[in-house]
Amino acid sequence: MRQNPTETLRRILPKVREVLHVAGVEMQLTAAVSFLTILQEESVSIHTYAHSFLQVILLHLEHRDAGVSNAWLETLLSVIEVLPKETLRHEILNPLVSKAQLSQTVQSRLVSCKILGKLTNKFDALAIKREILPLVKSLCQDVEYEVRSCMCRQLENIAQGIGTELTKSVVLPELIELSRDEGSSVRLAAFETLVNLLDIFDTDDRSQTILPLVKSFCEKSFKADESILISLSFHLGKLCHGLYGIFTPDQHLRFLEFYKKLCTLGLQQENGHNENQIPPQILEQEKKYISVRKNCAYNFPAMIVFVDPKNFHMDLYSTFFCLCHDPEVPVRYTIAICFYEVSKLLNSGVYLIHKELITLLQDESLEVLDALIDHLPEILELMSTGGESSVQENKLSSLPDLIPALTAAEQRAAASLKWRTHEKLLQKYACLPHVISSDQIYYRFLQRMFTIMMTNNVLPVQKAASRTLCIFLRYNRKQEQRHEVIQKLIEQLGQGKSYWNRLRFLDTCEFIIEIFSKSFFCKYFFLPAIELTHDPVANVRMKLCYLLPKVKSTLKIPADKHLLQQLEMCVRKLLCQEKDKDVLATVKRTVLELDRMEMSMDAFQKKFYEKDLLDQEKEREELLLLEMEQLEKEKQQNDGRPMSDKTFEKKRRDTKTPTTLPKNIPISVPGPTSGTQSTSKEIKKSKLIRSHSFNNQAFHAKYGNLDKCAGKSSTAAYTPSVSGLTKTSVISLTDDSFRTRNATSAPSSFSSNTPLPSTSRGTGNSGDPKSSGSKDTQPRKAALKSRKSNP
């Protein structure tokens, strides 16, 4: 049909028709799928398709095999969607009158029910009333309960086709009668259809007709088959929404009690018997009870709306507690999925479910943990900003079990074989700088990220730990800790003995380029990264080649001219000295890409406007972190006058750092120029105000600027140019330590007391008399020498 539709229809289709009369199940199923594919691909026009294929499809609708019959029916229902009205009327609707008669087989009448439900979307209300509704009524009164149930489930489609008035006068009476049917499956179908049609009926119909039916259904459900309870528990949320405002206070209370009873259904019957001793019918019943409780957990957010979040503690907290501690994993899994919705609905009352969050984090099932951590950043943000207290402080300080629960959850995930859950958890931990203090992250989480990077055997997990570690570093509040982490990254990864660690160092460099400003990367990681061009392992050199375009994008001319020379020198060495053919081929491709790249300039450029602004914002944040740390030290050392700023002190204790900054923050760039040396008390006061605003910024669930810069790490960015640019000096790769690139071209946001490998546009403040006497800040050599590594 794709290659030659005309000849296929003329020569092949007649043979297919002949074969299908005696074909087996497999060929029938294949033909049904093939006919549907021809329709979907529009291999021929609709008129040609109807003329050639429709009769074949109709002929096999009543095949003796139920699977084959259903396959042809699915094909026909898809064909009905595209056929014109006249074809539908003559080829399908008119023959349907005889096919729906009691004299036909049950299978024929079941097929007629489904076709009628589909046809209502193709005709107007008058035609439906005249030609289709009589058939519908007849099938609703069929002697076989299967037919009545099937037709009942099609009434929803029919109601949407005929409009509100006809639905109230024709469909609703049929549904009421079917809801009293002797067959439980028919009653169940009528109930579910009524729930789905609640929006169509007005308030009078709901209160006078539907509410009594629902009430009767609930009262009889415990005496009937458990499958009715499963359906009822699943549709409770829709019922609450559709009947909201109609219940009297007494009916409201009874419905709530009914829901609570369903939430604990089957738990009271637990005993100490061995599972092998329990009769099979009891085990089957318990499985149904588990499904009921699972559906109740699914509808829990709707029930909070039903009772009003203000009444949660009194009306629903005990039920929520039971669902979170349910002995069955599917129930706890479902309530873990709903936990974020529950937290949003409770708003300021979210503190009520702190303990349940800890419970689910400590759950023995990793499936429950996996469901919970999907929205863990949003949940923790609500926990940290919500609560009954009006004091502006981190509410998680009242939840001392959070950090042990988070660390235990990570360790359980790491000990399991479910590495995807472990990877996801590490990715979600990137939100922690907002909800717990910088020191807590440093002492409880940061070293763990290092350990995972060094020892874990799963690459996605290592990369997730690396990126999260970079975010922790990005928002660390103490300069000394930041420099210690940088030192570890360079010495243990970049200069590690294992080539695997050096590969992870390059991954980390990529994340640094993405998350930090370009000046930060150039200051600390540029030279350690390109030093790996001398690595003895070909895979490391090849990975570096792929990274070089992103490395080059961090440079700005003319400030980084000497670093550009170093990069070009390394590339030339690779071209001249590389012996591995795969690496050499990669180098050649990389050279072409590097040549095509446009260098970012110190001056503002229109083509890089958005990227430059993004990098400028990152650099502002990095500078502001340094300023805040200095102001905190001055605040602590100021013993002469009492502490008047209580908010600052609380912020100092709870140390939160956001990812977004107010755009009107003025930035002063430190350096030896006359403008930056005039720091008066008024300027310091303004910095203190800025630090307060920095602390109070909202931490968006997507981590603000971090995700904005995802995928943009290979672009050039703008760093504020500063007067007094001095001549740069070329740095030799064989020096024992790296010297700074120039004196004053960028802020020294990360100036260290410990002389790290630094190629910053701003000078490292190593000569600061305040820091020179510290025992922990003795100079360390971070030589990047040619070494023999163990592959």
From TrEMBL:
- Region of interest (Disordered), ranges: 632-685, 742-791
Q: Which InterPro entries match?
A: ARM-like, ARM-type_fold, HEAT_type_2, PPP4R4
Skewed-composition ranges (Basic residues): 782-791
Spell out the residue ranges that the record assigns to HEAT repeats: 132-169, 171-209
Here the segments flagged for biased composition (Basic and acidic residues) are: 632-656
Which spans does this entry mark as compositional bias, Polar residues?
671-680, 742-776
Q: Which PANTHER family match?
A: PROTEIN PHOSPHATASE 4 REGULATORY SUBUNIT 4 PPP4R4, SERINE_THREONINE-PROTEIN PHOSPHATASE 4 REGULATORY SUBUNIT 4
What is the protein name given in its UniProt record?
Serine/threonine-protein phosphatase 4 regulatory subunit 4
Organism encoding this protein? Balaenoptera acutorostrata (Common minke whale)
Source taxonomy: Eukaryota, Metazoa, Chordata, Craniata, Vertebrata
